[in-house]
UniProtKB/TrEMBL annotation:
Transmembrane segments: 35-57, 77-96, 108-128, 148-165, 198-217, 223-243, 330-351, 371-391, 411-432, 495-516, 540-564
Organism: Gossypium davidsonii (Davidson's cotton)
Cellular compartment(s): Membrane
InterPro entries in the cross-refs: MFS_trans_sf (IPR036259), NRT1/PTR (IPR044739), POT_fam (IPR000109), PTR2_symporter_CS (IPR018456)
Protein known as: Major facilitator superfamily (MFS) profile domain-containing protein
Gene Ontology CC entries for this record: plant-type vacuole membrane
Membrane topology according to the record: Multi-pass membrane protein
Molecular function GO terms recorded: dipeptide transmembrane transporter activity; low-affinity nitrate transmembrane transporter activity; tripeptide transmembrane transporter activity
CDD domains: MFS_NPF5
């Protein structure tokens, strides 16, 4: 008994530990006292703070650029898209640094500090704007011009410092949050699927707060205060994140080489072995006991990395089966990534032309309060906040009962459903804009851009609401898809790839706007994006995007037919 009792006592402890994870002191972590929703709650709070800060800048950025900085509508829209693009592409760098060197926890802390610095400098640049605008008539024009130039340099430097910080923060926080759930445990695996829904719920709650409060402060009180508050909120979020340090599960990072280098080596060896016959590869697969599967048959040229060019099999000169499968998982994501770009181009319009569209309309309420144009974006967040609980608690269980799938529908089906809704939203946006232009013509306002068009801004609510509904399906689906289908060591990179869709989409939107501006202007004509929106044709632009979205959706459906889910992901 004296021997058997200690063994029995140790069994629960052994079962309670989680493979591949440590606590904050580097000890084996216990399931019962770490991770799951307790840890995820701290991480969701810091994400709410970060989204509050980010959208506190991006949602009303076009108003600041066309107002205090005096840029044209087309130029400002291109600037906003370029910045959003940079902010969405920089996570690739942040994810590489996190997965290869610092780890997610340290990268989050460092990125948060840089974030706070950037927001502080942004508030300082707005302070200079206030000082310049308060100068009297006798103020030295040269001094004011120099001050304005310094303000613009400081503003854009601070703006891109925020984008750089977001690049380290965004992919790591979400991946670190998902890491708190053990996919080997059935209950935690199911909870992880809900985590992505509630993660986006938290994001949109932060965004909704920003659009409801911060945009009003920026438009009616002070840009300085409007830029300073996000910095304060971000600092509070960092403190909350640090409070959860003792509860987090930290993935074990060994001394092995960077996973990005490993995947890269598969492609290099496959190219160097291009002359190797497929019969030799088949013999090697048989020798290793590899069973023929759909995955092994797809992208067979990568299987050449299993052999060295000289036929040797020394350590380091050939790749393992898992390494080849990881490389295949990465390349399989490329068609999904590419066909999602049109959705990202459409997504970029909500913070630019939708906002300018609303600024020309009747924004007064029964209480005499005028709604800030940028605050209309709150309907996107509001529809997300309202629909995600319905999706998670009602739609998923019903769909699960019908399909037998853990998430109700597959991730690719979820993403495609949102693309359909987004296309419908763009058609509605075009119809509403046609109506706005007709009313402007009827009231003789075509050449009076500063006069309000007597059409209620509530006409824009349907397009904003459908955008939010599309996000519930496509945005959340893309997040989970790019996390789930990447190897564990590359999941920060996976989320960075998801974000890069919207980065490249913003750049493509900027390019499309510039191209259309050049094609439709000149010879005394008003372009589709004329500063006088009553002479512009945003309706044509929205219809063009709807057609492109339909084409993109068709290509996406074709690509999904050939997609093979990674074996370490969920079973569908």
């Amino acid at each position: 008994m004296s021997i058997s009792d200690p063994s029995a006592a140790q069994t629960p402890l052994l079962d309670d530990t989680i493979d591949g994870c440590l606590d904050y002191k580097g000890r084996p972590v216990r399931r019962s006292s770490s991770g799951c929703w307790i840890s995820a709650s701290f991480i969701i709070v810091v994400e709410i703070a970060e989204r509050f800060a980010y959208y506190g800048i991006s949602s009303n950025l076009i108003t600041y650029l066309t107002g205090p900085l005096g840029e044209s509508t087309a130029t400002a829209a291109a600037q906003v898209n370029a910045w959003n693009g940079a902010a969405s592409l920089l996570p690739l760098l942040g994810a590489f640094i996190a997965d290869s060197f610092l780890g997610r926890y340290r990268t989050i802390i460092l990125a948060s500090l840089v974030y706070i610095l950037g927001l502080g400098l942004l508030a300082l640049s707005a302070t200079l704007s206030s000082i310049s605008s308060s100068g009297g008539q006798n103020a030295d024009d040269i001094a004011l011009s120099s001050s304005l130039q310094f303000q613009v340099i400081l503003f854009f430097s601070s703006l891109y410092l925020v984008a750089f910080a977001q690049g380290g923060h965004k992919p790591c926080v979400q991946a670190f949050g998902a890491d708190q759930f053990d996919t080997q445990d059935p209950e935690e695996c199911k909870a992880k699927s809900s985590f992505f829904n509630w993660w986006y719920f938290g994001m949109c709650a932060g965004t909704l707060t920003t659009l409801s409060i911060l945009n009003y402060i920026q438009d009616n009180l002070s840009w300085v205060l409007g830029f300073a508050i996000p910095g304060i909120v971000m600092a509070v979020g960092l403190v909350v994140f640090l409070l959860g340090t003792m509860t987090y599960r930290y993935s074990v990072k060994g001394d092995e080489e960077s996973p990005i280098v490993t995947v890269g080596r598969v492609f290099i060896l496959a190219v160097r072995n291009q002359k190797t016959s497929y019969s030799a590869i088949a013999a090697e697969e048989e020798a290793r006991g590899i069973l023929a599967t759909e995955s092994s048959k797809q992208f067979k040229f990568l299987n050449k990395a299993l052999l060295a060019p000289d036929g040797s099999k020394e350590q380091g000169e050939v790749c393992s089966i898992r390494e080849v499968e990881e490389a295949k998982a990465v390349i399989r994501l490329a068609p999904i990534w590419a066909t999602s770009l049109i959705y990202a181009i459409a997504f970029a319009q909500s913070s630019t032309f939708f906002t300018k569209q609303g600024a020309t309309m009747d924004r007064s309420t029964a209480m005499g309060f005028e709604i800030p144009a940028a605050s209309l974006q709150s309907f996107i967040s509001l529809s997300v906040v309202l629909f995600i609980p319905i999706y998670d608690r009602i739609f998923v269980p019903l769909a699960r009962a019908l399909t037998g799938k853990q998430a109700g529908i597959t991730l690719l089906q979820r993403i495609g459903s949102g693309m359909v809704i987004s296309t419908i939203s763009l058609v509605i946006a075009a119809v509403v804009e046609m109506r706005r232009l007709k009313i402007a013509e009827e009231y003789g306002l075509l050449d009076k851009p500063n006069v309000m068009v007597p059409m209620s801004v509530w006409w824009l609510v349907p397009q904003y609401t459908l955008y939010g509904l599309a996000d519930v399906f496509t945005m959340v689906g893309l997040q989970e898809f790019f996390y789930d289908q990447m190897p564990n060591e590359l999941r920060s990179v996976g989320l960075a790839l998801y974000l890069s869709i919207f980065g490249v989409g913003s750049f493509l939107s900027s390019f499309l706007i510039s191209a259309i501006e050049n094609l439709t202007s000149g010879d005394g004509r008003d372009s589709w994006f004329a500063n006088n929106l009553n002479r512009a044709h945003l309706d044509y632009f929205f219809l063009l995007l709807a057609v492109l979205s339909a084409v993109g959706l068709t290509l996406y459906v074709c690509c999904t037919k050939y997609y093979i889910y990674a074996r370490w992901g969920r079973t569908f």
